Amino acid sequence: MEHIEILKAIFLGVVEGITEWLPISSTGHMILVNEFIKLNVTEAFKQVFLVVIQLGAILSVIVLYFKKLIPFSFDNGFSLRSDVLSMWFKIILSCIPASIIGILFDDKIDKLFYNYQTVSIMLITFGILFIMIENSNKGKHPRINSISEITYTTAILIGIFQLIAAVFPGTSRSGATIVGALLIGVSRTVAAEYTFFLAIPVMFGASLLKLFKFGLNFTGAELYILFIGMLSAFIVSILAIKFLIVYIKKHDFKAFGWYRIILGCAVLIYFLIF
C-alpha cells in the first residue's frame, strides 16, 4: 500500500471529524474534497469508507459523554437510571422518521439528491436559517435548558428536522437538528448535546446498512485504510466537540450560517465553472 493512500485516509478522517459535529455539512465538504483527493480504491469501497469512518466520530461522543449516556449505576449495587433511560427513549423516537426513510429509500435518495446542486442549495438555505433564527432569538431566554426537559413531542419535532437532513445532502444532520431545536426553544448547549447523542444510533445504523450492502468483503489494505480513517475521525471529533461546546457558551451560530452560505456558493461556482 502506498503511503499517499494512508495520508489521504487520515485527511478524510480529519474532515469527517470536524464537519460531522460542526453544523456545516460533512457532505458538502466531502464533495469538494473528493474533487482534489481521490482514494485509489473501488467506487463501492469508497462509498462504504465515507460512511463507516463515522463510527470513529461516534466513539468520541461515547468517550466524552459516557457518564451521561450509560443507563446503569453501580454505586449502591446495580440499578437503572430512569432519567437516562427516558433520554434514550426520546433519542430513539427522534431517530424513527429518518431511519424509516433511510432504510426504504437510501439508494433512491442518493440517486436523486446526491449532487452539487442540492448540496449547494441546502448549505445556503440552512445558513440563512441559522442567521434568521439567531436574530429572532436575540434577547430571548430558551425554555428548555436541559435534556431532561425535552418532551416526547419535542423529540419528535427534532426528529422531523433530522429527516430533512436524511433526504437532502448538504443540510447537515447536526445543522438540521440544531435549527429545529432552536426554533422550538431549546438552548444552544442542549441542542448541541442532544444532536451529539442522536448521532449514535443514526451513524451506527447508516454504517451497518452500508456494511451489509457491501458484504464485508474487504481486502487487508481496505481494512487498514478504514481503520486509519476511523482513528483520525475519532481524534479530531473529540477536539471538534470540545471546541463547539466552549464556543456556543459565548457565541451564537451565525458564524456557521455565514460559513455555510460561503461554502454553498463556492461549491456552486466551482462545479459551474469546472
From TrEMBL:
One of its GO terms (biological process) is peptidoglycan biosynthetic process. It is a multi-pass membrane protein. Its main location: membrane. Its EC number is 3.6.1.27. GO terms for cellular component: plasma membrane. The chain crosses the membrane at residues 48-66, 86-105, 112-132, 152-171, 178-204, 224-245, 257-273. The keyword Hydrolase applies. GO terms for molecular function: undecaprenyl-diphosphatase activity. Pfam families: BacA. PANTHER family: UNDECAPRENYL-DIPHOSPHATASE. Bacitracin is thought to be involved in the inhibition of peptidoglycan synthesis by sequestering undecaprenyl diphosphate, thereby reducing the pool of lipid carrier available. Catalyzes the dephosphorylation of undecaprenyl diphosphate (UPP). Confers resistance to bacitracin. This is Undecaprenyl-diphosphatase. It comes from Clostridium felsineum.
